[in-house]
Design a protein that fits this description.
The protein is an alpha/beta fold. It is built from 7 helices and 9 strands, in the order E-H-E-E-E-H-E-H-E-H-E-H-E-E-H-H.
């Protein structure tokens, strides 16, 4: 997979893209990530990417020319998605990550200031995605979350693919409780069923724990399609 990030702050991504499983996936060629700065596609000496909104109002709006030029300069691989990270987008869910992981190319456009010229929404991007009902200073944090969530789904990133099968949000359930050594820590013991070696009973216990935890913490998931 090839991922392009269109951002005014490419330095934001330097360390995360070199770290942990994400960094290893890039080094192994499982995916490539390229950073593009819209300021490199401006025509004035000040490299201006924003301007006052027509009709008045507070703040500045990202101009369409640099964003269109930045995206249009990138290689075109099919299938691809051009994604604007914005609070107005659809909420990011695991099912959407799975869908996007099937694309050959993702172009992530990081919004800033009061947002982008509406023509970017209407004529450039194919998807608008939000991390949730809150506002951040820009699209870089959501873009990084999107990259991390997608790359871990690509074959070869996670050492044991089975670990992806029973995690949170699979089958609209939260993950079951996890324990490791020691079996007794400060008097708090690991559930005996996990020490039994009886795989069918362990599987039954874990499923029951998933359902109970989801009912208590995220009952909305049980109502999802």
């Amino acid at each position: 997979m090839h991922i392009d990030i269109v951002t005014l702050f490419p330095g934001f991504f330097t360390t995360p893209l070199e770290s942990s499983l994400l960094g290893r996936a890039i080094r192994q060629g499982i995916c490539t990530v390229h950073l593009t700065n819209p300021r490199d596609f401006t025509a004035d000496k000040y490299r201006k990417v924003d301007d006052l909104p027509y009709g008045g109002g507070a703040g500045m709006v990202l101009k369409p020319e640099p964003l269109f030029a930045a995206v249009e300069s990138l290689p075109h691989l099919d299938p691809r998605a051009i994604i604007l990270l914005t609070p107005q987008g659809v909420p990011l869910k695991q099912s959407l990550l799975k869908e996007l992981a099937t694309y050959q190319q993702l172009i992530l456009v990081c919004g800033h200031y009061e947002g982008v010229d509406e023509r970017v929404r209407e004529h450039l991007v194919t998807h608008e995605i939000s991390l949730g009902d809150f506002v951040l200073t820009g699209g870089e944090v959501p873009a990084l979350a999107l990259v991390d969530g997608i790359v871990r789904l690509l074959p070869g990133t996670v050492g044991k693919p089975a670990s992806l099968e029973a995690e949170s949000f699979e089958d609209n359930l939260l993950e079951y409780p996890q324990y490791t050594r020691p079996a007794n820590f400060r008097g708090w013991e690991v559930p005996r069923v996990l020490l039994s070696g009886h795989h069918a009973e362990i599987a039954h216990w874990r499923r029951a724990q998933q359902e109970e935890r989801t009912r208590k913490r995220r009952p909305d998931l049980l109502l999802s399609d």
